[in-house]
Amino acid sequence: MTWGRQAAEPFGTEELARIRADFPLLARTVREDRPLVYLDSGATSQKPRVVLDAEREFYERHNAAVHRGAHQLAEEATEAFEGARETVARFLGADAGQVVFTKNGTEGLNLLAYAFSNAAAPGALDGVDEEWADRLRLGPGDEVVVTEMEHHANLVPWQELCRRTGATLRWVGVTDDGYLQDPSAVVGERTKVVAVTHVSNVLGTHVDLAPVVAAARAVGALVFVDACQSAPHLDITGLTTPESGVDALVFTGHKTLGPSGVGVLWARRRLLEAMPPFLTGGSMIEVVRMEGSTWAPPPQKFEAGVPMAAQAVGLAAALDYLTALGMDRVEAHDQSLVRHALAVLAERPWVRVLGPTDPADRVGAVSFVVDGIHPHDVGQVLDDAGVAVRTGHHCAWPLHRRLRVPASTRASFSVYTTPEEIDAFAAALDRAPQIFGVAG
């Protein structure tokens, strides 16, 4: 479901300067003392001081095993960890009891996929009402639907689930200009799950979830959303409302100004209560006997072992930072950067941009190919000038095959990216045709 873009202003020059000053790494130089132009935030974002300080303070003052021990440090650590969960819930417009901490977005998607695998085990769905038990059972004849634009993290787990259960994997195609084809042509009566990205990590396409949800709801399928590329740029609170029709979403900390090693799964409470756990062990149990065990209620049911407390605290600081900037301003800034990047690339006829040409349909990234030059060589030319971009298939191999390109070069943005950095990127890009002797 697409929620309208806000009529907000992008960050001004002075605001951007203040924001950039919050990110220590942006001050360094690279490649023979050249200023760093970091345009790889879609792979991982840089971290503001408040995030670095939050992690360090946790380790320096509160470090202890969360939910274990009766001493003061353990109490402080638990309070900080659960406080971080509350912050994530506010960022999502959700209830803290619906927020599960994971290692990253990939683990969150695997958690969902393995719930269906584990549901087949004897006794796994004991106590679950039959309606929900049936929704979690997969077997031959059942279908899981994804799209051709998925990151491998939202493709391979579902491939493996279908392999384990005998279900069939189907996918919604992508048009030549980077939009989803009609999902209702693929989603059918046997569909149990529809897993879709909110924003393509290659094309930047801002997927309209409304037809996806409508097709899924018509057949009673669950809808799971990969929000890893949208959470850093958009207000995604609409995804967690009852009206959205979304049953679960994931995002990752390291793309959202937060630390590596922490991600988030949000899901409807009924779904969390019905799903069998992904990992078992300490912390996620209710009662343990030698003969068997029972599980704690969600979200603890899905958080086995000592959790990533410091990273969760750092993520909370990152989300507070984004919230203070205002997600409407963050989105407006992103839109201004996308428009500028598309405009400067349009001035270079030897560049072919992949995906939508309308900046209003894009978020966070612009991928392209240069006539006659492999993307890895384009990336090397840019890196020599101090411009950091991503080259390759961006963990979206099937999408590149669909677009009939072996790989692409991607420039991706964040709150600290400036229009001047995009200009520097374009100037460095102009050297590629000269160096490789192709028409430019």
From TrEMBL:
It catalyses: (sulfur carrier)-H + L-cysteine = (sulfur carrier)-SH + L-alanine. Residues 37-425 form the Aminotransferase class V domain. It comes from the Bacteria. Its cofactor is pyridoxal 5'-phosphate. Keywords: Pyridoxal phosphate, Transferase. Its EC number is 2.8.1.7. Catalyzes the removal of elemental sulfur and selenium atoms from L-cysteine, L-cystine, L-selenocysteine, and L-selenocystine to produce L-alanine. This is Cysteine desulfurase. The gene is sufS.
